[in-house]
Structure formats: C-alpha cells, structure tokens
Amino acid sequence: MAYQTFRNEYINMPPVTRAYTTACVITTLAVQLELASPFQLYFNPILILKQGQVWRLVTTFLFFGVFGFNFFFNMIFTYKYCRMLEEGSFRNRTADFVMMFLFGATCMIIFAFFVNLLFLGQAFTIMLVYVWARRNPYVRINFFGLLNFQAPYMPWVLLGFSLLLGNAVYVDLTGIAVGHIYFFMEDVFPNQQGGFKILKTPMFLKMLVDPHPEDADYAPLPEERPGGFEWGNRQNRNENQEND
C-alpha cells in the first residue's frame, strides 16, 4: 500500500522536479554505496578546464552529502519549492522553467570560479526558495512550528538555520544573490518604464520541452472550425423542422 502511494506520488510529480530530485537521490545513493566518490563530483575549475572533466558542472548540483539530517532537510526543501514553482508560476511553461535552471546554474558556476564553492546543490535550493518566496509575498509560513512569517523572509530564515547547522554562509548567500538576479530580470525590470524581457527562452527549447500534440479524438467546437458557426445550415435545419 505504501509502495503504491509512493509510486503514484512519484508519477504525478511534474517532469523537471521529478528529474532533478531523482538525479540528486541517485547521485547520493551512488556515493553511499561507494560506486562514486565526492572527489569525482565536486566543482574543480582546473580539472574541468585542463582535464575535460565537464561532468563536474552537473554533479556539483546533485550531491547534498551522505544520507543524514542535512541531506533529507535539503531534499525536502528542494522537492517542495521546485514542485510549487513548476506547478505554480511555471505551470504549462516547462521550457521557461528549464531556462531558469540553466540560468541559475550558469550564474552559480561563474561565481564558483571566483569563490571556493565545491558543491552548489544547497545554493540552488535557496535560489528556488527565493524565487518562489518573492512571487508569493503574502503567503504565511510556519517553520517547524516555531516561527511564523511572510514568505519573502524564508530564504533568510534558511540562511540562519544553515548557520546553526555549521554550514558556510556564503553558499546560501550565493543562492539568494542568483535568485534575486533572476527575479529582477524576469519580474521587476520588464515591468519598469522602458523595461523589456532580458531572459528569453529559445524557440527550439520550447519545441523540445513544451510539445502540443493534437488529440486525434478531440472534436472541435463550432467556433473553432474553419468558417465559424454554420449559421446558414442551422437556419435551414430550423426551417426544415418547421415544415415537418
């Protein structure tokens, strides 16, 4: 029964959230089973540029540490806010959500070249939380039954919680900074006088991720058919009925 519930919940997850969280769990499981080592996953510019270990550009976002409280804490927030974004402001806009992932990851990698950041998964989670919080400013949040506050304060509460857990503060600050850059580019600047949309999703990505296949069994409404309503035919049918 529990397996069936979990299976249904997993299948019903939106595609980007399902793909990302699954990749995170599989990567961590591979390290736990000693099939991979964290030394093969962390961000290292020298190994990437000189030895071509480009997979580190991806794996740095997938490893949250070995199974433990810190891992489960981060995965819960990653799953929750990633899903709420994908089913909320990015509903039916999967390509735009993927573009947000690519933009956020690129910005963090650029930061990581100048700051000693080895794993960027936690910063990525904070970015997701930040964007969701700024787009839902009036939502009230109860944090573990201890604190009640408006959604925009959530990233800063998580930053404080990270400090209590002994994590590096600049990781969370990186996520907040990238989240703010994305929010400003997408939600603030385009709405200013003279503003315009800076970050545009390529058409090929929309065609690849947001296909709109036609349903062969769909019967179009009269107003959707070429020529619109068949007013003349309807009038003729009414006249025939009266004659009968």
Furnish the topology, listing elements before pairings.
Layout: H1 2-11, H2 15-32, H3 45-51, H4 56-59, H5 69-87, H6 94-114, H7 121-135, E1 140-143, E2 147-150, H8 154-164, H9 169-188, H10 203-209, H11 231-243
Helix pairs in contact: 2-5, 5-7, 6-9, 6-10, 7-9, 8-9
* Coarse shape: globular
- Radius of gyration, in angstroms, nearest whole number: 24 Å
Number of helices: 11
Largest sheet at a glance? 2 strands, antiparallel
Percentage of residues in strands: under 5%
Distance between the termini: 62 Å
The average pLDDT value, as a whole number, equals 84
Poorly predicted spans: 218-244
Q: Give the helix proportion (percent range).
A: 55-70%
Give the neighbour order of strands across the main sheet. Answer: 1-2
Element string (H = helix, E = strand):
HHHHHHHEEHHHH
Strands, count: 2
Q: How would you describe the oligomerization state of the chains in this entry?
A: single chain
What structural category do the secondary elements indicate?
A: mainly alpha
